[in-house]
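Our consortium's second objective concerns turning raw sequence data into structural hypotheses that experimental partners can test. To show how far this objective has progressed, the report includes one record in full. It was chosen at random from the queue rather than selected for favorable results. The single chain below, 114 residues long, was entered without modification.
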Amino acid sequence: MTVKLALLKSGEDVIADWHEMVVDERVIGYLAKYPYTVSIEDSEESDDTKVGLKFFPWMPLSKDKEIPVDPQWIVTLVTPVDEVKQSYEEKVNVIKERRNGSSPDNGDETDSDA
């Protein structure tokens, strides 16, 4: 997996397994596999060292799990911190297990701590 965090022109932070779409050695777009917006939530605990992460499916009304993105909409692609990447990969693995199993993937929102 090539997990990256993208900042879009819309201001959204989208974490996904990103791949370049190349034609004639030119990047014409990016393919976001299992894209989720990720945001930081205020911690309800008194310990200020913990932050909550909120993952929500990007384009939740789409059945597609691979979404092409115009490269002009991406401000930057960066490597997420280890805790964010690990939380994302755990979420995607659960979704893949559901798809391979008998229960359908309903794209439910997930909260986790990093």
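The partners drew two points from this record. Confidence is low (pLDDT under 50) at residues 103-114. The beta strands are 3-8, 13-23, 26-41, 52-57, 66-69, 74-78, 110-113. Both points have been shared with the crystallography group to help prioritize constructs.
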